[in-house]
Amino acid sequence: MNNRKVTRARYRFVALDVSKYRLLFIALLVGLGTGLLSSLFRLILARLATFRTTFQIGEIDQGWQDWLWPMLFTFFGIWFSIFLVKKYAPETAGSGIQEIEGALDGLRPIRWRKVLPVKFIASLFSLSSGLLLGREGPTVQIGANVGKMADDIFKQPVEEDNPLISAGAASGLASAFNAPFAGIIFVIEEMNGHFKFNFYSVAALMIGAGSADMVVRLLVGGGPILKTTIFTFEELSGIWLFVLLGLVLSVVGIMFNKFLIKSLDLFKKLKVSYITIALCMAFIITAVGLYSEDMIGAGYTTISHVYNSSFTLKFLLALFVVRFILSILSYGSGVPGGIFTPLITLGIILGMLFGGIAQYFFPDLVPDPAIFGVAGMAGIFASTIRAPLTGLALSVEMTANYELILPLIFTAVTASVCTTMLGNTPIYATLLKRALQTEKF
User: Fold this and answer.
1) Which of 74, 266, 267, 301 is buried most, with the most CB atoms less than 10 Å from its CB?
2) How does the average pLDDT of the chain come out, rounded?
């Protein structure tokens, strides 16, 4: 009798292990699928990025061509993107990360049959139009929907929804920035109230993020996304400057979050047609872009120019203010797109501005202002998203500045703690609450 009980228990354990191994195998498929879609997304987006400013229109005079084609291209991209979102899948507007958090709590549906094509196509148009939006929001939502698709196809138990959707989200962030560790940390930290934490779910995250990053490196390319100087940090007497930068960024984070919500409310209250919104945004983006291309777009080119060009402090301040306003308006317009990249760009600009001022007053403590640019990435992420570990991981993986972990910790912790004490709610929690109150489909 006792032998029978032992045998039954052994069979149960074997069955349990088999089901968990099956989960990990499906997580691998989710990572590979997300990496493939993200690679295709990035490759197409890279082609479209130059199309806006290089297309020639017949024999039109160059003066007209400078603004007419970018205006038309931007207008159509914004209009078509909003049209797809409003008509077929409203949950694809904006980043989509709040939708994933709601889905993990069972508060929002995941309609992957509609979301995958709409998010993919609409995001290509919105991101290539010159709006200040990032590719990470679309890839995270696409990855999570791939996770739900795999869950439905393989008919997984209901309790397996969470790790597969989470693995897809981690894969999406990893494949957007070549940052698998940040993808894992983001789900654990930012989605900690939604993610069901256990050994196998964490293993699924790691497998998904790692396999997605592997596919992207094979198809798109490896290495850090941002090509910057590799710094060392040995002068501990200047650590207080990173704390001070964190204080500044905590205030910036509060302002960004509040104005972002106000922008969404403003566009909703206007009750104007898609054409009007697209026309107004196209005019603004084109006019600003004609003055300086660094003031529009996701920010990768801007970051490169900020690091490699000798911009004056006055221009850096103007660049920060303009990009701050346009980032908020871009997201508020209702097109799909993420806020990570625009935020990172703002953090780098503000960090460089802070570093330039600090170098003027404390030249012995600041050998290179660019070191504060890297710290600004982590700090602004910590103050807006309230995810300091993710900000730290992203900053290090995107720049390969592993020796800056110590000062980045001081900046990120200061920014997140101070912004919390000042009452700043994490932006995705606010966006989810708003979506639950105002959007039904």
Assistant:
1) 74
2) 88
